[in-house]
Amino acid sequence: MAPQTRRLRIAVSGLGRMGARHANHFLHRTPRAELVAAFTPNPKELAWAKKNLEPWGVTIYQDYDQMLKHEGLEAVCVSTVTTVHAEQAIKAIEAGKHVLCEKPLSTDVAACEKVLAAAKSHPTQKVMCGFSRRFDPSYQTAYKSTTSGAIGRPTILRSQTCDKYDPSGFFVDYAQFSGGIFVDCNIHDIDLALWYFSSPPPAGKAEKGEREVVLPRVKSVSAVGVTAVEPGLAQHGDVDNAVGVVEFFDGQIAYFYSSRMNAPGQHDMTEIIGTKGKLVVNGNPAMGLLESHVPSGIVREIPQTYYERFEAAFVEEARVFTDVVLDGGEVPVGLESSVEAVRIAVALQEALRSGRKIVFDREGRRVGGGDGVKARL
Amino acid sequence: MAPQTRRLRIAVSGLGRMGARHANHFLHRTPRAELVAAFTPNPKELAWAKKNLEPWGVTIYQDYDQMLKHEGLEAVCVSTVTTVHAEQAIKAIEAGKHVLCEKPLSTDVAACEKVLAAAKSHPTQKVMCGFSRRFDPSYQTAYKSTTSGAIGRPTILRSQTCDKYDPSGFFVDYAQFSGGIFVDCNIHDIDLALWYFSSPPPAGKAEKGEREVVLPRVKSVSAVGVTAVEPGLAQHGDVDNAVGVVEFFDGQIAYFYSSRMNAPGQHDMTEIIGTKGKLVVNGNPAMGLLESHVPSGIVREIPQTYYERFEAAFVEEARVFTDVVLDGGEVPVGLESSVEAVRIAVALQEALRSGRKIVFDREGRRVGGGDGVKARL
Amino acid sequence: MAPQTRRLRIAVSGLGRMGARHANHFLHRTPRAELVAAFTPNPKELAWAKKNLEPWGVTIYQDYDQMLKHEGLEAVCVSTVTTVHAEQAIKAIEAGKHVLCEKPLSTDVAACEKVLAAAKSHPTQKVMCGFSRRFDPSYQTAYKSTTSGAIGRPTILRSQTCDKYDPSGFFVDYAQFSGGIFVDCNIHDIDLALWYFSSPPPAGKAEKGEREVVLPRVKSVSAVGVTAVEPGLAQHGDVDNAVGVVEFFDGQIAYFYSSRMNAPGQHDMTEIIGTKGKLVVNGNPAMGLLESHVPSGIVREIPQTYYERFEAAFVEEARVFTDVVLDGGEVPVGLESSVEAVRIAVALQEALRSGRKIVFDREGRRVGGGDGVKARL
Amino acid sequence: MAPQTRRLRIAVSGLGRMGARHANHFLHRTPRAELVAAFTPNPKELAWAKKNLEPWGVTIYQDYDQMLKHEGLEAVCVSTVTTVHAEQAIKAIEAGKHVLCEKPLSTDVAACEKVLAAAKSHPTQKVMCGFSRRFDPSYQTAYKSTTSGAIGRPTILRSQTCDKYDPSGFFVDYAQFSGGIFVDCNIHDIDLALWYFSSPPPAGKAEKGEREVVLPRVKSVSAVGVTAVEPGLAQHGDVDNAVGVVEFFDGQIAYFYSSRMNAPGQHDMTEIIGTKGKLVVNGNPAMGLLESHVPSGIVREIPQTYYERFEAAFVEEARVFTDVVLDGGEVPVGLESSVEAVRIAVALQEALRSGRKIVFDREGRRVGGGDGVKARL
């Protein structure tokens, strides 16, 4: 077989909602990848895998460690529940595999840092947290536009994650594991702020080929929130609508909104506001290109779920990760940035719960007491 | 009183739906005009005038000829039913008044030509047909853009007039007087085609200060239509949905659509398509700047009536007409163009009824028989 | 003259940018008002008035107190620089005039309260602060929709005021008087939050005909900002981009953004987010209904200034104020609300400068020290 | 291998622009298909195939007849130049293969009818003309909405195909083979009219499982056009801007526009106008969800080519064709409809060239002479 048709042998861990999708993407929609194995301990997911994966030659495991030993396995996509992301990622790294891990790495900053440490000690392996929005073409065009200087210096970023209301109560129960609305929802928006506000690596580092761009440094975080539709969230210290503000050193501000009650569907949007212009991603959400002119007015439906909005981005994420592993180069989402995103999200969640603004110095140390948030590396 | 505060003494003839609006515009919203008189033979309109106009010092007449003799009267706005537009306009012209006449001048081309002849024999008086869309700011900006060359040479014009369905049956009865859907509705679109496709006057004429721009010359007209919601229209040779195509000499095409059944409201729109770009007026109709994000999607209401859409244009039309009379200059809507619009509309209506394409030579004579449409002047 | 044609005799104080517009609105575009007098001490404005107002019979004064004595004067529109709004409003009230005062009443809360006290001691006179956005049809439709329950309970309000960048440096100098970006720009957004979050008066009060709706009570304010384009603002403790968050008791949050550097023009927008839907006012700004399809894409121009966006609202504001004075009833913008708006804006400005979150108890007293912001009445 | 993983063995004939894309779609993006062979006589395309297809196990042929004999081949996707579509399709059918043929079947009606006859004599094979727009999700949602009765009875259809201007002159040379602008561009719009205006099969036929829906019957066609940017087209009897109107018996009208000079890119759009509402597909074209707020205004880029707009639809077309072959059932685009589309396009082209309206009786025979267009079957 010609070199260009060599395919990455990958496994997917966890076959829940997103895991099953990742499995399908690697199985059917990533030409250079070959889904060789999958792991799930869940009977229902197992049945799904028997029917939908096994016939295509995928080996199904009920033991994660066994799966890691699958003959020829090169990479793992970790899509289990958030609580085991870090542990599974570390095991895979230590077993010599490349890792694509669903976001967030963990709801716990220390756990994230362990993943980062593991990755650093295996520098030839690719480890990437799957911040899917970065692979959406509109966000990518906005990024190119930003770095080209089209809007001057990016100064303010506004970003929101708004879900359609799910009356099943699922997200209320899930709140005990999710880390809270900033960690679960706005983590994407935080990641975008870090992306659009990052600077290229300083001259010296760039020359040596060192990879990480310079992340903006947090100066303060503050947050407020309410439980408008699900009072039960309060018992987990969570809310269903939240506003968070992150101030960075060097004159940049990001502000976020998240909601669990958006009436027409999923509406995630971002504005990158520069000194000379503004880029708006998904200010006008739409499910396709159809508009209905009916007695109630002109009506446009919008995506109902995160996946409906970002399906193509997930497929692109799989393609890019595969290409980077096969061809070499840096993963496009730096792991330090993904750890920093959790750190900020956790701080926002704390600010929400305490009602206090949290202030940092340039080294990432808290000013005025508090020790819940460690310094940036 | 200072010269700049001198006000034009105007009367409004006919106080039906549009007449009452014109009266209000001249009374309250045209600073340099003074509504001094109004005429209506209709008891209901008369009662309205007693209550709403008389207290402000407006004299109400039940005899049109008497009104023309009102002391100091300088101008008349003719807003009666279409069938008497031409007659009243001619009387006013012959009485030495300036005239603003509602569109169309008549449903009969010969009658239109009589108005034109009267106007020509009183060259110091201003006579203008009220094609309100020309005074809409979006159409005006589009015109400036067109003449500036921003879209290259205007080549194709698409324009539509779509009314919200009126279940009262009014427009079915009215079809016997309206002249048909092209004369009643698309006349506006035809006027726009003549406007955007006209050329500046040839060098010689312009030097002598001769006014009329050069109108494009019709090469053919064809039309089709259906009665989708009001079969009763057929008895008047009319339809509720029509498509008409007008081919001009020198490589320009206008195509029109009109409908009586637009579900969300009034939707009149126009595209001016040039060799280097396209201008779209009201491709996205809206009643203000509000959008509702509700379970059915994102919803935008649109104007319900022609007046809701063009109220400001009517006020501007009154202002401009007043200024031209007081300050001198040419009326912005040439009367020959307004006659040509009727000629084209009548030809389209004939093409609709006969099912035949009607062809003209460069002098406006029919090719291949037919005599219903006279030559252009 | 019939009762319905009786016109309110009003004067305009200050003929700067907005004052001249108010004068024109009352002179030419408010049928039931008669502009009888105007005051300005400024030579340039005086020359304008001689040319544009005097010929229409308006008496021009260079002494405010003299103007108040103008024979038959009934009302004053205060449009001078902000620093004298309160003083002139109080003088007019004490002289028995109705007052329409430009926003804000003052940049100083105590001064605002004096205006409120004066108004309360003259209960038969109408005193209204001119929050123009409330008279914009889209905001009004949104209000009706909100009170009808269409979006459930209003919970989150996002609102922004973004000006086109003015390279003249005007707003840098003006920063020493303006009270800062929250007091100068976001005051409108704050007013909207108070409007959409207010509740009808409690049953008892409503029965007695007591007027004021129940304003939401502030729980905390926090703010951040940067000087991205005009570092000179820092000397006045001001910024050119700011984000502010206001938390109310009873589960409501408003968050604001203001900017002095919006590239295409003026973009003020508001989202009212309820438990069952969201209303967006001006999410898609537009200058009319024209779109250009040109090589760079599909382009839509937007208003360049606040007045281009809200001209019709200012005219409506004049009409409504006039009607309320002539016909009786409550002014639609409660004066207590307008004082509260300044109180919140000043607190946001303090939070911006100090970097501290400011917290209040239900009676409006500061929690945790501080005394700059007095209790709500 | 499990039944569900059995894959359709397909070949692609022609590896020009669209052929190469089809090859990629079947190779990498159609899980249930296996691209086993490809044919091209063109050296440049051959080189591309050696590099991009052969390494994945695809056999490359320079002889179409040889390719048809490829071991195990089940289906052929015909993507050669239009002039050989019909011939290759017929050969493949006669060789027992299923066929997916690029549009149009031919520029010659008689040739189309031969393909139809061949297909009818091999009723167990699937033969489908690739009208890609039918596989676009927005068009599909519109179709479901239409058949659900949401807009009442579909009455008027407006549809346009507008390409970005290609200054290379390619399409001028190509005009000698393309069949003209209606056959080359508007054929898609004509297909949509046939789709949205078709009725379900009559009761009797439906009971017997007979497949074809009832196509609307053409009553007249008329067309006009101009050469605005490429006068050279005239030598081939073609134009660069055309308007065509098709009247159907039973009260339906379709009108079309095509252009070769759309400034910002590709803009294909369709309105399906019913008695109770209107569906608009791509009234607001967009390349993704990004809007730029820059000094010139708010700008949105649009797709540059037909493929940028319809890439996903082509992939879906491949998927659906594959599923129908593997699982049984009817192809979603009836072959008789595809022949009828050519018949209408050819008639429009003739109307354009002759300047005459062409009229048909209910049996598809021309009324008033003419013999260029045969009767509908």
TrEMBL record, chains A, B, C, D:
Residues 139-279 form the GFO/IDH/MocA-like oxidoreductase domain. GO terms for cellular component: cytoplasm. The keyword Ligase does not apply. It comes from the Eukaryota. InterPro entries: Gfo/Idh/MocA-like_OxRdtase_N, GFO_IDH_MocA-like_dom, NAD(P)-bd_dom_sf. GO terms for molecular function: nucleotide binding; oxidoreductase activity. One of its GO terms (biological process) is NADPH regeneration. Coiled coil: none annotated. Pfam families: GFO_IDH_MocA, GFO_IDH_MocA_C3. Residues 8-128 form the Gfo/Idh/MocA-like oxidoreductase N-terminal domain. Keywords: Oxidoreductase. Belongs to the Gfo/Idh/MocA family. PANTHER family: BINDING ROSSMANN FOLD OXIDOREDUCTASE, PUTATIVE (AFU_ORTHOLOGUE AFUA_2G10240)-RELATED, NAD(P)-BINDING ROSSMANN-FOLD SUPERFAMILY PROTEIN-RELATED. This is NAD(P)-binding protein.
